[in-house]
Amino acid sequence: MFHRAAASKSLLRHAVSGRRLASTKTLKEALQEVIPAKQEQLKRIKSEHSQTVVGDVKVENIIGGMRGLKSMLWEASVLDPNEGIRFHGLTIPDCQKQLPAAPGGKEIIAESMLWLLMTGKSPPKPRLPTTLHPMTQLGIGVAALNHDSAFQNAYEKGIKKSDYWTYTLEDCINLIARLPALAARIYRNVYNPGTELRGISKDLDLVGNYTNMLGYGNNKDLTEYLRLYISIHGDHEGGNASAHTAHLVGSTLADPYISYSAALFALAGPLHGLANQEVLRWQLSMQKAMGDKASHDDIKAYLWKTLKSGQVVPGYGHGVLRKSDPRFIALQEFCDTRPDLMASPIINLVKKTYEVAPGVLMEHGKTKNPWPNVDATSGCVLYHYGLREFKYYTVIFGVSRALGALTQLVWARALGLPLERPKSLSMDVLEKIIESA
Ligand SMILES: CC(C)(COP(=O)(O)OP(=O)(O)OC[C@H]1O[C@@H](n2cnc3c(N)ncnc32)[C@H](O)[C@@H]1OP(=O)(O)O)[C@@H](O)C(=O)NCCC(=O)NCCS
After folding, report:
1. Is 260 helix (H, G, I), strand (E, B) or coil?
2. Which of 51, 218, 301, 405 has the CA that lies 20 to 30 A from 253?
3. 316 pairs with which residues across the strands?
């Protein structure tokens, strides 16, 4: 009997120990199969094309936060300005078709997304595990993460460079498995102090356990929503602030716990991960000012008020994308299939805002992308489902982004990528270069 959620969860648990479930590969074995070809590819590119020019460095790149500068390797996903994200070539609808869902659910589970990000392949379907070791449950609950880093431990003892990735993988999988328990504990401590955290259930996937531990296990729709959100938000190429921070810190050979904790601080800024909370705050104040029946003209007036006060319209614009974010569209489609969401005043306000905001932003004429990003809707759906503590929303994003950032850490070690060290210039030096150009 195959059981998809439990199967995927077992993939995570068994990936570390290397134990094999009958007729399946562990994640480590699957990686062992694909790494040599990638290493060869990198060697070939290096030896044959080291001097090939892939773009010019313009002044706008240097003073513009390296925007658009092609200067990083990032294996798991590529972001096209018009089409949006592809994970190893698969669009979000492709992933929704190909990757396993939880039992009774339709949305991608984070374990399948992690497998895809790591290996470039859809996960196999292993057998249902019959036991969940109590020590696994205990380990998941232990929050002293960096304290027992396998990589750090092995590095101190002395390991070969070619073995770095295996210890990194072990840490990354452990961290991903522990994050939901840690994140749920934070939620309980802050918003529901003194309550017991539910134990890990072997019948649930990672997100199913997460919502259960948060105290929303009975809300199947919220769980499905979080499966979709956590999977499709799992990676967005390497240049975004949190992913890049994980990569930069990881390039010093810091262990995955330290590298990802640094990424989480980058995620905490309002131009990045905090945007989902800002969108909700903004839509709620619009709702308060105009009521549930706001007309398109009312919303336009509110948008202009926001812009004229010198603020950005949260949930709109993007550093790379130049069309509506396919993640926004996927979340909208999720709403469209559920009558309660379609009837929700806050979701309707998000929709109506989408109908007018791009026009207003185009007329305003500043942003290069007047279209919505994923955060234009993400927090409002959580709000509708009763998860209303919006300062918590970025924590959920943090659980999700671990999938991509930690995948890249494994690949960076498998490919032996070097310490990141861009060259900085003073304005005087820059002007000299400009003069002689
Ligand atoms: C995401 C974001 C930070 C990208 O920044 P960026 O790459 O510098 O964007 P642009 O190149 O289009 O910015 C050009 C100008 O348009 C402005 N702009 C961009 N998005 C805007 C928005 N949603 N509302 C108002 N103005 C905006 C910028 O502030 C900038 O103004 P400036 O020239 O006075 O500095 C930006 O679009 C933004 O602040 N959006 C709102 C916050 C948000 O939703 N973040 C989540 C992103 S997933």
Report:
1. helix
2. 51
3. 372
Residues in the chain: 437
Range of the domain at 89: 77-126
Pick out the chain residues at pLDDT < 70. Answer: 1-24, 125-144
Coil, helix or strand for 274? coil
- List, as one string, the DSSP characters of 359-374: HHHHHH---S--SB-T
Q: What pTM did the predictor assign? A: 0.81
Instruction: For residues 224 and 210, give the distance between their C-alpha atoms in angstroms, rounded to a whole number.
Output: 12
Residues 244-255 pLDDT 10s: 999 998 999 988
Active site residue 318: yes
Q: Of 88, 233, 247, 272, which residue is the catalytic one? A: 272
Q: Establish whether residue 368 lines the binding site of ligand 1, counting it when its CB lies within 6 angstroms of any ligand atom.
A: yes
The dihedrals phi and psi of 27, each to the nearest 5 degrees, come to -60, -40
257 and 139 within one domain: yes
Query: Any catalytic annotation for residue 375?
Result: yes
Same domain, 259 and 407: yes
| CA atoms within a 13 Å half-sphere pointing along the CA-CB vector of 238 | 20
